[in-house]
Amino acid sequence: MSMQKAVDNSRSSNAGLSMDNQEKLLADALQNVRQHAFAMKRVLDQQSVMEGLKHAANMLGELRTSLLSPKNYYELHVVVVEELHHLELYLTDEFEHGRGSHDLYEVVQYAGNIVPRLYLLITIGHVYIRANELPRREVLRDLVEMCRGVQHPLRGLFLRNYLLQCVKSLLPDTEEENQEATKTGTILDSLDFILLNFSEMNKLWVRMQYQGHTRDLQRREQERRELRILVGTNLVRLSELECVNVERYKTIVLPKIMEQVVSCRDSIAQEYLMECIIQVFPDEYHLNTLNEFLKACRELSASVNIRNILISLIDRLTAYSTRDGSQQNIPENIQLFDIFSEQIAEVVKSRINMPPEDIVALQSALLNLSLKCYRDQFEYGNKVLENTRKIFDNIALDTQVQTGTPAAKELVKMLKIPIDCYDILDVLKLNHYKLVLQLLSYRERHTVCMYIINSILDKETIIPTAEQVTQLFELLLTLIIDQTDSPLETSRQTITNEDFVEEQNLVARLYNNFQAPNDPDQQYHIIKICQDTFKNGGLERMRFTYPPIIMQAYALTFRYKNIREQDEKWEKKCQKLFQLCNQLINTLTKLETNDLPLRLYLQGALAASEIGSENAETIAYEFFSQAYTLYEEQAGDTRAQSASLTLLIGTLEKVTCFAEENHSTLRQSLTQAATRLVKRPDQVRTLLLCTHLFWSAQRLNESTQKSEQVHDNEKVLACLKKATKLTTQIMDQSVQVQLYNELLNTYIYFFNQNLPDIDITLLNSLIEKLQNEMSKISSNENDEFIRNQIQKTFDYLRQQSQLEKFQGLQINN
């Protein structure tokens, strides 16, 4: 006894020292293996079987070592098995040619050491079974039992793995119990063999955890994970047996496996083996053994990560049920959702200390199952969301999940699942979705809301009713109104904040998806709901959210006009829409810039003119006058005033609903405004634009109620003369030449329009003036553009000079 203890202590000491010398130990062992293998092959070539077995046993003796790490032991084992294969081939050939010895199976049992003895027994037993020298059933039972003689975890695992590899093609896979089967065996013998081998290997694998010092625990766990495939191979072999049907799996295979998994009480083994069961056996087997499998899950060790096991099973069955786009793979008698829902609830209940993120992950998998497998049964998804909310209410009543925590991240993933599976109209049917969203802090709510909007825009989902729009806004309140838990100060939620601008642009784009294509009144209700909601968002948000409402309201007036024969109240409805727009634009005038509300007012004037309702002129004049007032408030910003005045002139030129009184007032006001601009070039250009207000602009003839062009020759000429006079007063020669060219183009236009008092003589004088002034400007890059523009004007005039109307035109080459 004392001698054995000394040997064990020595081995333990050598094992500790060998960690720094693993490569040398492996190299020495491999060298010995090759020497013995060479000697074995040489004597086998000389037909000396007994000598060959002796050398083989010496070679296999290298596998008795306890000094190598699992990785290095694996390398050694691979080389040994490869060399041992030569002996197997030799013996097989001997039996095929009738020269095989019939007592080798008994002879090798006298080998001195158990490890070489069992490797040789397995090799020879394999040959004997294939040669029909011994009954298969007895040999298989004998081998798997004798392997119990090796109880060292590492040596035992590799030995049994070698046994499994050798008999892989020899396992009986038949149903019949007859005289032949008495020798060869049936499927039941194969099951007994693999299940026993699996049980013993798992015990050896678990035992590795408890060998050595506690300081090496982490290293041992890593080594165990590297060896897990050796144990899992047994389950793969079971799944490959054709005679293992659902019934046999349910009554024999799964109970035996679960018995071993549960009884080992080792978290690493339980996690791996449960995952292995899920992956290697067919989906139909899992469907028919759900309750048994899930019940076993509840009996696993408390340190097992049950979350990953259950999620893996749920995800696999979800994928199976929706394979090939169908949802008919699940038998009607299997209530998949109900089973998982009940069992997960029991698991959560039995594990008091389960982290919140694990609970949410399980609920997420269950939600994914319900949405994909029971797509039209929204009550399942609602049930999952409701249970999730209740779980968190029980954990921390009236408290949000802290931002950035694993639980918060899992909740975000969970809330994205319905968005990915459904369009938003179906998501709105999940009544408890909003309640789960409210569990999140601002940052996570913001993430989910942005995800929802992007999904709607990407899928181009149309929200057709006011009720659905209201429900959607309840989900998106984080982006629509200020939040008390927002980390951003109100002062940072401005147009200078890029993130704020991005989110509000998305909200604005979302409005284009609010469409009731066949019901204008429903569209009106949507507009009102949007107004009532967006007005609580603050002025900085209104900058983005109000313009889409206003433009949609303008578009709705045209829809009412198109159904005027079916709706006698269409004009009143249009008036309400214009009043609404006026109210919204008036709110936007509080912004620091007047450009946006001015453009919206002018767009309203155009819309009112085109609608042509009874009070169109009144509406258009109100909108136009409001725009003109905003223009006047831009005093001091010359560039903005010039651009705004250009918009005003262009809009008035297109509006056709003004009678002479209003039209005259507006065009005179705009002309006077043009002369009041600060910069001379701006005055000239806007006066040239004003000429069209007195010529091609249309006014309403009150007697005929039809629009007609103004054609006021005197006013046109007055504007042209004023512009010409102002041009002569400009000091910058380059700008002056450019304006002369624009003047000439305007005169050419009205000459083509047959305006009296504009003739060839007047054009020639302008051409001469332009040519003289052009010769005075420099030839730098800036002026080159002006020269090109003038040259294009002259080219046009040369072409026109061929016409009779332009006879007498004088242009120098």
Distance between the termini: 125 Å
Placed side by side, the strands forming the largest sheet appear as 1-2
**Percent in helix:** over 70%
Give Rg in angstroms. Answer: 45 Å
Mean pLDDT: 89
Give the class from helix and strand content and strand pairing: mainly alpha
Which architecture name of the domain at 592-729 does CATH use?
A: Alpha Horseshoe
* Biggest sheet descriptor: 2 strands, antiparallel
User: What is the CATH homologous superfamily assignment of the domain at 592-729?
Assistant: Vacuolar protein sorting-associated protein 35, helical subcomplex Vps35-C
| Shape field | elongated
> What is the number of E strands?
2
What name does CATH use for the topology of the domain at 592-729? Serine Threonine Protein Phosphatase 5, Tetratricopeptide repeat
Low-confidence stretches: 1-17
Strand content: under 5%
Number of helices: 38
| CATH classification, class level of the domain at 592-729 | Mainly Alpha
InterPro entries: Vps35 (IPR005378), Vps35_C (IPR042491)
Subcellular location: Membrane
Family: Belongs to the VPS35 family.
GO biological process, one term: retrograde transport, endosome to Golgi
Task: Provide a descriptive summary of the structure in words.
Keywords: Membrane, Protein transport, Transport. This protein is an all-alpha fold and 813 residues long. Among the domains are: 245-334, no CATH class; 592-729, Vacuolar protein sorting-associated protein 35, helical subcomplex Vps35-C (Serine Threonine Protein Phosphatase 5, Tetratricopeptide repeat, Alpha Horseshoe); 735-812, no CATH class. 70% of the residues lie in helices and 1% in strands. The chain has 38 helices and two strands. The protein has helices at residues 2-17, 22-45, 49-60, 70-96, 104-107, 114-130, 136-146, 153-166, 179-184, 187-207, 217-240, 246-264, 267-280, 283-288, 290-298, 306-321, 336-350, 356-373, 378-395, 406-421, 424-427, 433-437, 442-459, 466-475, 477-480, 498-510, 520-534, 539-562, 570-588, 595-611, 616-632, 638-654, 660-675, 680-693, 713-728, 733-752, 760-774, 781-800, and strands spanning 698-701, 706-709. It has a two-stranded antiparallel ribbon. β1 (698-701) and β2 form a beta hairpin. The relative contact order is 0.03.
